[in-house]
């Protein structure tokens, strides 16, 4: 294999794996703050115990996020040296700010948050939970701002040596693309976090291991899950889609599988792109809907792939198309299930409806998939560019690092991450089991007090 | 402007080496200080709340290096491809060792496995970091575009087709290994009591002789490999204070160790690390990555980013670092005092 292909594979593999953890921790962090606040506000020790329980899961996941995150910053230099020389002066700013403003904050307070409750007292412990939330969400901002600059470069000039120099700090940090991508992405993290809380609650109820806390988790997870799922479609998904339509029209065409420029373009629900014949096979679609959601006019013209030169097309259109459609499909299913769950909760039927609890429990892997394919849509959609419209992916790799060396490290990462996965699953299963005992003891203690 | 950022990067690197240095060092002497499961748990608890923050200095330094000297970041990271990726693996292993050990606190197989992983990864990291610094001092085979690639080892010599490892860089690795062992033992002496404290002091006492030995050897080797390192010292004689401080801090480590003043001994080994690194940086300036062919060397001038980016970062960087130092003070104060064997979190 060519070394460029391997560089891309290694980055894709390590970043996809890495992001399984931050999406969970960024989603759990605000929920833990809410549990902690409920505990203090309602003087309810049970919510405090819920916060402690999720803090332990947060702690393990946070560690895995940290250790798999370091390779991301390194790889810009190791595998993408030419790109780093070209754009380091710009994207290095946001990465350095992440280290300075977010990582110091998170790393200082994670120990206090996990192990310092007795030393700190409730008010300071709440504050450390809150600062962890701020830290994880700030970190997300800087990474999104970095990615947004690659999707939609702003505030730069081309210097004499051909590299890009920053000309406007605020354009970089408050890039229009970053704002909408952030709102969409953080909603996605909340979906993962709240679905995980609901799923574990459902498991505790169904297995009768810990019904009291199970109900608390399901209730919190379902309410947060419903709000965040709807947020993903409207307004954040809608905004994000309009950004793509405005700045990357060829990507929009590829995502939708639209080959020919069409007035009143249909919204495709399902179908298979045929790249040879340049058409969509077996398409099931809603007439005129794509035109409407993109331009708010049923007969608006949407440009198709054929409108753009081939060397500007994303290099893997079918994968991009499927990623996008899986994301949207899952998102729609999430809204439907969570809406039903909220109604059932409101009517008081939810905890008796085993079928719905089963669905909530089994649903937990799907937000991870939805977030992953969402990012695949963003990143495959950016191709063939590393920096959209400025710098092509094929020009960015380190040319003195041979393919044999990259394959060596790619295999190493795969082995390493396989071990990490087994460890994580083992520790999670153990935590879920022991957690039930701890929660039962806490529930008994709470009853004793009353 | 590039001068300020050069000093900032050097400052952050020194902070990283002193801070992560003591927890890597604790890993090196892990088995010497902690003789049983409970004692080793105590060793890990001394660094438990702080190691992650210490490691952030590496990431923050990397970030600053990236935007301030993008060419250096691109060149050094791709040139040191294999050792850097291995450093990543070691960092993952070490973090797992520290944080997963206490997940199954009463399972002896589990804890002894992670003790081993933690200690081994710490030892290898110290050697790798030392060897990396050795490579920078020796110089690397940069081409006219400013890139290079080195295999892990070739003929173990310092000229021609060099590898990451040769006799000089291995020696640098050994210096780092011994220096961080002493530094980590000083930290453990400061943070523990009774048996552990006595053993940690003993490690410092014995390790000190090795440290003096390898320091002298490495200074001689540097003169042999890169004699031009002294040019800056002749040009700016105030620089001679740095080697003087190296000698003084070494003496102070021994003095305070013998007196049982662990905190002062720890401060002394911190000064030693800062001065060794500072001495190399002072001698190399304005080079940031010397080439074996001097015409291709990367300097602060040809590796730097644009003016605007550098000046705008001078506004946010001090704010961020002052806030970070605030967190640090709070963190270290909250977890101040000695760690006792056998106590839970």
Structure overview:
The complex is a heterodimer of chains A (450) and B (345). By secondary structure, chain A is mostly helical. Chain A has a domain at 226-393. Chain A contains 14 helices and 8 strands. The longest helix of chain A has 47 residues, at 403-449. The mean pLDDT of chain A is 94. By secondary structure, chain B is mainly alpha-helical. Chain B contains 13 helices and 2 strands. Chain B has helices spanning 2-28, 30-33, 37-47, 51-68, 70-79, 81-100, 108-138, 167-191, 194-225, 231-235, 241-259, 262-284, 307-334, and strands spanning 287-289, 298-299. A two-stranded antiparallel ribbon of chain B has the order 1-2. In chain B, a hairpin with an 8-residue loop joins strand 1 and strand 2. In chain B, helix 1 (2-28) packs antiparallel against helix 4 (51-68) and helix 11 packs antiparallel against helix 12 (262-284). Chain B starts with a helix and ends in an 11-residue tail after the last helix. Classes of the chains: A mainly alpha (450), B mainly alpha (345).
The shape of chain B is: globular
Q: What strand order characterises the main sheet of chain A?
A: 1-2
- Low-confidence parts of chain B lasting 5 or more residues at pLDDT below 50? none
Quaternary structure type: heterodimer
Instruction: Count interface residues per chain for the largest interface.
Output: A-B, 65 and 65 residues
